[in-house]
Design goal:
This protein is 36% helix and 16% strand. It has 238 residues and is of the alpha+beta class. The protein folds into two domains: 91 residues, D-Maltodextrin-Binding Protein, domain 2; 136 residues, 3-Layer(aba) Sandwich (D-Maltodextrin-Binding Protein, domain 2). Helix 6 crosses helix 7. The longest helix is centred in the middle third of the chain and has 13 residues.
């Protein structure tokens, strides 16, 4: 992770980087790495699902028993960030995942596996990164995506410059482009939520103001990674 690289002293600070239009929570306070986009994790559901989910809690309803798929944080970094975010923000903490396990939720593979299961009807609900179902819905897949009311986790595909960079000026120019309006518009054209608040979201997304991004402590997550993976495995294997 970028936090790990920073801790090892392998990143070059770039204090002059232009972060106008980017929320301070989306870049390192020491300006060693910067978010380039937001990829949130919410709920995908098949249009034949018995109800339209609006909350993370909805995935624990009896009507969803055995019908929920999710990527495993044992194999997906985004899924681990999602797990840490939910357990750290939802009042239930790890009890939420216990409820999912007791309701027959299945955790395996990555986000692509979840999309395949839900769009194909093998499962009717899933936890998944936003752009996949939004993109596939536009192509005609029988899926919808929901940003749950409690909020969503997010990965930000940060960019950084290595402290050993042979041409730091060129690296800084690349960072400048990614954070610029042109660079952020390019991210939006690819179907991602741009990090800059002054760039419109792609088609298929709601208004930015309606998307609540939950907090996430990257340093704590890095320190507790092994323990969190062990905990997840124990909870979901019951």
């Amino acid at each position: 992770t970028m936090e790990g690289l920073k801790k090892e002293g392998r990143l070059l600070a770039y204090p002059e980087a232009d972060v106008s239009g980017i929320d301070a929570v989306l870049y390192d306070k020491d300006k060693t790495y910067f978010s380039t986009k937001l990829i949130t994790t919410g709920i995908v559901y098949n249009t034949k699902a018995p109800f339209v989910p609006a909350s993370w809690e909805d995935l624990t309803k009896p009507e969803a028993k055995g019908l929920v798929a999710m990527p495993s944080p044992l194999t997906s970094g985004a899924a681990m960030i999602h797990t840490v975010t939910l357990t750290g923000n939802l009042p239930q903490g790890w009890d939420y995942y216990d409820a999912l396990a007791r309701n027959g939720a299945q955790a395996s593979g990555g986000n692509g596996d979840v999309l395949k299961a839900v769009s194909g009807g093998d499962k009717l609900f899933g936890m998944i990164v936003d752009y996949m179902p939004i993109r596939e819905k536009a192509k005609g897949a029988p899926v919808e995506f929901v940003f749950p009311r409690e909020g969503v986790s997010a990965v930000t595909e940060p960019v950084a410059i290595l402290s050993t960079a042979k041409n730091p000026d060129a690296a800084k120019a690349f960072v400048d482009f990614l954070l610029s309006k042109d660079g952020q518009q390019a991210a939006a054209k690819m179907g991602y939520i741009p990090a800059r608040a002054d760039i419109a979201l792609p088609a298929g997304y709601p208004d930015r103001s309606s998307i609540k991004v939950l907090g996430y402590d990257a340093a704590a997550a890095l320190a507790n990674d092994a323990a969190n993976k062990e905990k997840f495995g124990a909870v979901m294997s019951q």
